[in-house]
Amino acid sequence: MMRDAGNTENKKSKGKAQWKVAKGSFVNPYNFVSLGCRCCRKKLEECIPYKSLKTGWLECTLYTKTPIFIPNTTNENAFNVQGKAFDFFSYEDISHQNRNDKYAKPVIPGSSLRGVIRSAYEAVTDSCMSTIDDGGILHKRTTTPKKPGILRYNKDGWYIQEAERVRISLNTIANMNQYREGQEVYILANNKNSDKNQYLPEVIKISSEDFPGSKKGYFHKTAPFTKKRYESVFIPKDDRTFQIDEDAVERLKEVVRLYKENEDYGTYYENYEVKDGCLIYYSDNGTYLSPACITREVFKNRLKDILKQQGGYQPCVSRKAVCECCILFGMVGDKQAIGSRIRFTDALPSPQDDYKDYYAPLVILRELASPKTSATEFYLKRPKNSDLWNYDYAIRYDEKGNPQKIPDYKPEIRGRKFYWHSGKQPHTNELNERNCMVRPVNKGKEFHFRVYFDGITEEELKKLIWILNLGSNENQYCHKIGKAKPLGFGSVKIKVNKAFFREIYLDSDSIKYEVICKDINELPTWEISEDQKSIKEFLKLMDYQNKPSNVCYPLAKDNTIKSINSEASHQWFAGNKVIRVDEKGKELKNRSFSKPGIYKELPEADAEDVSLPRYEKIYENR
Question: What's the DSSP call for residue 464?
């Protein structure tokens, strides 16, 4: 008891913990190229004339401006270490080999080149977004508590029976495992809330059998977390029910699936079933359901829905409506397809006896964050006068701090994702289960490849060359390729050296075949409007010479905890919702309310300042 009192006194002496703007800033590793007004599509037969088409190939050279890495996945421990370790991609099967003193001929797969050039072609020509998962679910963690309820089903469909939630201290029951999720129990609760910090009634007696003065309820377990003190009992309100639609229940199943796939909670929720009588939490009149009070919401909108209303940028699926990029690169729909008219070879170094000089030293990469579309402050445009927004709704707080939904809200994605160039490749000395060791190809190396084209127009050829060398063989614009792009790897300059054209013609009674070579300077060039917002953004992201100096994952530190996660990137997003004061302790304008609200969103790529502030969490009186 004396120890607990001392801990309480120590916490009080530190004051209240709060997030503040700290010194320093960062540039997020990725940004977006804006979409235009509408994706232009035409019938395939209207786009390809049958005369004056070009067939041949382009001779190209790729120069590495930074180390690059593409893994050879035939061996996940290529260097005999305690963890994952990959060699660079090659044609060799390196299964069961120790590669420390072996250096294969490095290869940049044609598929990697094709993916880079296609993404750039789509952005520059304002084509569809062919590679997005347009049918995948969108979800985001919400900090707003939901209401307790019981999911019911009858001949009229699904409905929710409202419930009162009563908490039960883990100290009340000697063995909490004697009660299972959803089990019928009888309780006696303290409803007087004598503890001023108690916001829920608390169980003082519980039994699996009825006893005098008890109320019937259903036992509810939540997933374990640090300093967990309570479980819950749901007491049904028999006369309070309302109907919900089937779609809400299907989204609940998706939420449960996400929990089951989570390595921290999967085991706990493996027996949770969405069925008549299961205990749930709900919000927005049953639109969003979950097995936990504060949880993820699975949204009604899908990316395809958003892209359709945002100019029709969903992937092409029909030959009767094809964007400019799919006409050249091809597409595969549910029932129709278009073959590609260009092909990329693998990029290879010049032949030599030993390729050791092509490689950089072994390096342990820092942990790479997976793309998180749930970071709506980065992936979605901020609606006017909004405090929070996601893929279904946006809210702003009134003067009393009450959330008000913004009417007629339509979510808009930021655009096409690209990575900034960076002169630094941060690494670590610790190999663990969340990162890996790699052997990259070093900067300053050359690779050679071809791009074959078959029956393309002169306009398509001009655009293809422009996108390969980004306007010129000698300018500062470069592509990014391979893995670890957020960590500064993958910057390359592509130069188009020559074009070879195959010409077949009739000479008297014979068919003649001829290959004509033209230097890059002899080829017509494509004139692009650099005044377009999307082109400005694209070129700024491709600009290797004027790259940002402080590209890294979001920077924040929680000084109130001692944990390896105190400086994890997610701390920035946590602070960004509740930040109230600047680095000098001055209250930020319009940030005085206590409710969570987004402070900073990702700057647009063509903004003068594309950086974001660093945050730190401290005790108030420090």
Answer: H
Q: Are 139 and 258 in contact (CB under 8 A)?
A: yes
Sorted by sequence, the CB contacts under 8 Å of residue 315 that are 6+ apart come out as 128, 129, 130, 131, 132, 134, 331
Pick the closest to residue 349 from 112, 113, 87, 106 (CA basis).
106
CA distance 149 to 289: 9
* Sign of the Cα pseudo-torsion (567, 600, 126, 140, in order): positive
Q: Read off the tokens for 582.
A: 């600047």
Count of CB atoms within 10 A of residue 37's CB? 9
Residue 215 φ then ψ, to 5° = -115, 145
Convert the pLDDT of each residue in 373-398 to its tens digit: 999 999 999 999 899 999 999 999 88
Scored b (16 or more CB within 10 A) or e, 232-252 reads bbbbbeeeeeeebeeebbebb
pLDDT, tens only, 504-537:
877 777 888 899 999 999 998 998 888 899 999 9
What is d(CA 374, CA 380) in angstroms, rounded to the nearest whole number? 10
Q: Residue 409 corresponds to which tokens in the numbers above? A: 């809200």
Q: In the structure encoding, which two tokens stand for residue 177, read together?
A: 């495992």
- Return all residues near 413 (Cβ < 8 A) that are at least 6 apart: 32, 35, 303, 306, 307, 310, 379, 380, 381
3-state secondary structure 586-607: CECCCCCCCCCCCCCCCCCCCC
Which residues fall within 8 angstroms of residue 209, CB to CB, at 6 or more apart?
186
Q: Which two tokens stand for residue 481?
A: 């390729």
Degrees (nearest 5) of the Cα angle 438, 443, 445? 110
Distance between CA 71 and CA 368 in Å, rounded?
A: 15
Kindly report the pTM of this predicted structure: 0.90
- How far is C-alpha 556 from the geometric centre of its chain's CA atoms? 19
β-pairing, 288-290 with 296-298?
Answer: unpaired
